Amino acid sequence: MTGRIELEVVDHPGADIDARIFVAEDPVPEDHAFIRGEGDTDCVCGGCGRVLLRGVRGLHPLPGLVFVCPDCHACNATPRKLAHRGAGRFAVPAQQQRPGAGEHRQAVPTAFS
Questions:
Q1: Is residue 99 within 8 Å of 12, Cβ to Cβ?
Q2: Segments making up each domain of the chain, as ranges
Q3: How far, in Å, CA of 110 to CA of 40, rounded?
Q4: Beta bridge partners of 56
Q5: Residue ranges of region Disordered (predicted)?
Q6: Phi and psi based region of residue 92 (left: phi greater than 0; alpha: psi -120 to 50; beta: remaining)
Q7: What is the pLDDT, as a whole number, of residue 2?
Q8: How would you classify residue 64: left for phi > 0, otherwise alpha for psi between -120 and 50, otherwise beta?
Q9: Where is 23: in which H helix or E strand?
């Protein structure tokens, strides 16, 4: 792997928040990852550094997805702001973001905003 993204530790979403929470079942294998891909970037727990997403090709902020680390039990979400790859993180250039070139939409508040 050539890249490493530290996920953002967040509070556990309450029952009133529409979130998908991923928790590994016991026993957790040493090489467990919630997502495995063929990309060159790993996403690690913001609390302890354990790999939670292995081999991703790109990462976008994904509101409503929470990954609970099997080691330290921290709730992790994709970072709200992703720096450029040169800074050790990955971000999609603004011209590639959607909904479309030059079109702006108002941000919708989420549990992670």
A1: no
A2: 3-86
A3: 29
A4: 41
A5: 89-113
A6: beta
A7: 73
A8: left
A9: strand 20-23
Residues 20, 87, 82, CA angle at the centre, nearest 5°? 30
CB 65 within 8 A of CB 77: yes
The DSSP-derived string for 38-55 is SSSEEEE-TTT--EEEEE
pLDDT for the residue 19: 83
Q: What parts of the chain have a pLDDT lower than 50? A: 84-113
Q: Give the pLDDT of residue 58.
A: 77
Name which of 92, 87, 109, 64 is nearest 6 in CA terms.
87
* Cα–Cα dist 48/39, whole Å: 22
Q: Tell me what pLDDT residue 1 has.
A: 54
Q: How far apart are CA 28 and CA 111, in angstroms?
A: 28
Cα separation, 100 vs 52, in Å, equals 31
Q: What is the pLDDT of residue 82?
A: 60
**What was the pLDDT predicted at 38?**
93
Residue 80: predicted pLDDT: 76
Tell me how long the chain is: 113
